[in-house]
Amino acid sequence: MLISLKNRVALITGASQGLGRAMAHRLAASGADVVMLARRQELLDEVSGEIAKETGQRVKGYSCDVSQIDQLEAVWQQVEKDFGKVDILINNAGSSARHPIDTLSLDKLQTDFDLKVKPALRLAQLASSGMKAQRWGRIINVVNIGAKAPAGGTAPTTMNRASGIAMTKVMSKEFAPHNILVNALCVGQIMSEQWVGYYKKDNPDMSFEDYIAMRGKPIPMGRIGEAEEFANVACFLVSDQASYVTGVAINVDGGFSPVT
């Protein structure tokens, strides 16, 4: 199935590395112009330049701490001036934060909420106005499989990611009459730069390659997923081919989650 995103503009947060970078490349390769948001402008410039050169699409990075709503709104205004519209929004910002409940401070809970939930909501509010006017839009909220089946010691991330799934469902109900489709993608164990940190933290007596192979064994498919595999699912969901898919949270985890 050939997916074309020609004449679409996609905005992706957390876009300079990992899943965000893979999604930016995949959407640009399918014909979309791409707006990339992340904190480090120098990395954004490097990555956006590479993607633009490889795909021939317009790709531009904007430095922004999305947890700071005033920054986010200022960048949004600039994006509208530069690109004229946003057809596709992918909320992908946020790293893992894990604490036991009895040591989780309210400040840490709020900080995580400010990074994962507030900017996703605000960007959806900003983007949906133009999407409603043209009667076409796609929104993806990237969460994790722990949002559906949280393990102990995974707060506040799983708590706020569960909020992301609830927010997705509410948005899908309200935006469907305007042909704006909203879905969540639940990340399992996908290869990214974070795995280097996990390897150093665990400090196993084995090579990095053997460590990754070991971590993939409990997954039914027997391996850790690739960021490009995740990006392929996202690309389908933001395309015209996914015209009757909204309000769902799809696991991209090689069958690892105990729930559907």
Automatic annotation (TrEMBL):
Q: What InterPro entries does the annotation carry? A: NAD(P)-bd_dom_sf, SDR, SDR_fam
Against SUPFAM superfamilies, the record matches this protein to:
NAD(P)-binding Rossmann-fold domains
Family in the record: Belongs to the short-chain dehydrogenases/reductases (SDR) family.
Indicate what this protein is called per its UniProt record.
Answer: Short-chain dehydrogenase
Native species: Orrella marina
